[in-house]
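Re: the 282-residue chain
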Amino acid sequence: MTDDPQTLVSTVWLEQHLKDPDLRVFDASWYLPNAGRDPKAEYERGHIPGARFFDIDEISDLRSEMPHMAPPVEKFISRMRAMGVGDGHQIVVYDGAGLMSAARVWWLCRLMGKTDVAVLDGGYPKWTAEGRPTEDMAPVMRDRHITVTRQNHLVRDVTQVAAAAKLGDHEIIDARSGGRFRGEAPEPREGLRSGHIPGSKNVFFQSLLTEAGTMKPTAALRKTFEAAGVDLSKPAITTCGSGVTAAVLSLALERIGHRQHSLYDGSWSEWGMYDDLKVETG
């Protein structure tokens, strides 16, 4: 795996840079409600030294009915400053699943114009399996100025996705499991229809990972997208259940050099809720 401080870095790279004064590490662990895991409690029991806990549900737009939608710029600035993260910092994000929710925070930082941000390949499970250092102390955080310029081209709303589905000028790629995509498995959130956005393609986010929970090499990533029928010459819109694992697809697209991608923030939590939006099954 090639280390790239703007997409993905290895556990070896992170340990080598762990004491860099301008490095900031986020624990962005998050789980579906039925997982039975408490990410904040797990963080408090142990985390990578110096890591701050990034609360995906709280650092969001709480005015929205949808879960963990991207926060207003002002709120993002406030939370980042409070965590001592600002201009000139290299950010590395990890999670307790290996490689899942960390990609969401990678995408969110990029949405806010921060490009010096990478996901830790293999996450906390790989870090601890290799016997690397952990601690249970909260880091000392000092306010730091941060400049934010929202990159609106990286996010799509329901109207834009509906237009893309109708015109067929984008590849809409769904990161949910095959069962949920086909409408054969129930949605973990109540009140949602089953199925997928018409014309969308299914690339289960875990199909982009190795058995060890790390991201596949770029050639294998490209083959995985192509095997699902994705036309990589088209701009892509990634989607999932609630905009979290869609970002794993976005990260993979970035790794293979596909720069024209955006994320449907409302994802199936929004599309599956409204009866006037068409749904396909099978």
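Residues 81 and 143 are 5 Å apart (CA to CA).
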